[in-house]
Specification:
The protein has about 140 residues and is an all-alpha fold. It starts with 8 loop residues before the first helix and ends with a helix.
Length: about 140
């Protein structure tokens, strides 16, 4: 329900112009969609998922040594660019520079994910599979 409200106002205006819709009505719609609180919740949820998710994935990759350390660092760094540049883009940078840096962050994320994917695809079944689980009763009896 929130995702359609997260469309860019420029995209909505372009679609409206292509379909010869009334610009005044579309402008009112864009303003109403922008002021809907669900839009802010959706954007916030998306950013939190991207940032925290990429950092957690990067930490897991780093800790498990499942991929190269540089690939894990790229994944973590790229997710963090969304928040940092989002904040800077609103205050210090002009909007065009912010979009370019976020785009560059996504390219960095793509490079990191490509390296991780390549590594995972080259793992053998034995390397990829976890060792057998040891039952808790065997762990506690073995330590006494």
């Amino acid at each position: 329900m929130v995702l359609p409200l997260n469309m860019n106002g420029d995209q909505l205006a372009w679609v409206a112009a292509r379909h010869a819709l009334d610009p005044a009505v579309i402008g009112s719609f864009i303003d109403a969609a922008g002021s809907d609180p669900r839009t802010s919740v959706g954007v916030l949820g998306f950013l939190v998922a991207i940032v925290i998710g990429s950092i957690l994935i990067a930490l897991a990759l780093w800790q498990s040594h499942a991929a190269a350390g540089w690939a894990a660092a790229l994944v973590g760094f790229a997710g963090a660019t969304h928040v940092v540049i989002g904040i800077l883009g609103q205050s210090v940078l002009c909007a065009d520079v912010g979009h370019v840096v976020v785009g560059a962050g996504l390219v960095v994320l793509a490079v990191g994910c490509t390296a991780v994917s390549r590594r995972l695809l080259t793992l053998s079944d034995d390397e990829l599979d976890l060792p057998p689980a040891v039952p808790l009763s065997a762990q506690s009896s073995g330590s006494s």
